[in-house]
Amino acid sequence: MAVPVDARPLRLEQAGADTLVIHWSSGQRCHYAVRTLRLACPCAGCVDEWTNERLLDPASVAADVHPDKIVPVGLYALSFEWSDGHSTGIYTFERLAEMCAEPQPQEPVS
Predict the structure, then answer these.
(1) Phi, then psi, of 35 in degrees rounded to 5
(2) Beta pairing partners, 47
(3) What topology does CATH give the domain 9-105?
(4) What Rg do the C-alpha atoms of the chain give, in angstroms?
């Protein structure tokens, strides 16, 4: 079952050096490869605003790229400050929900 597009992140968790976990208000959690998130940056420097063509060369992004800081943007998105110095992308909750390939149920809290 996909993450509903109106779901909101409740908690973020770094699960190892290359995985970010988002716990969603829908009761699901999603694992994201951090390099995949960096490559999916939606900013105008990474995607042509008119053609939607990807401008970011994947070869220019280090395999070990990781978020140094994650900041909420209003009540609709997250902004990442990446270890490669990039920080202009705004990832909407809707976009992050769409990027979740295999949502998993939340683990019960004991």
Answers:
(1) -65, -35
(2) 54
(3) NE0471 N-terminal domain-like (3.30.2020)
(4) 14
What backbone phi and psi angles, to 5 degrees, belong to 98? -65, -30
Q: Which phi and psi (to 5°) does residue 78 adopt?
A: -125, 145
Q: What is the pLDDT of residues 13-71, one digit of tens each?
A: 999 889 999 999 999 999 999 999 999 999 999 999 999 999 999 999 999 999 999 99
Please give the single-letter amino acid code of residue 68: D
CB 18 within 8 A of CB 32: no
Please report, for the chain, the start and end positions of each structural domain, with discontinuous segments joined by +. Answer: 9-105
CA distance 72 to 77: 6
pTM metric for this prediction: 0.89
pLDDT of residue 105: 81
For residue 17, what are its two tokens? 């050096």
Sign of the torsion angle spanned by Cα atoms 61, 63, 69, 74: positive
The answer to whether the beta carbons of residues 2 and 100 sit under 8 Å apart is yes
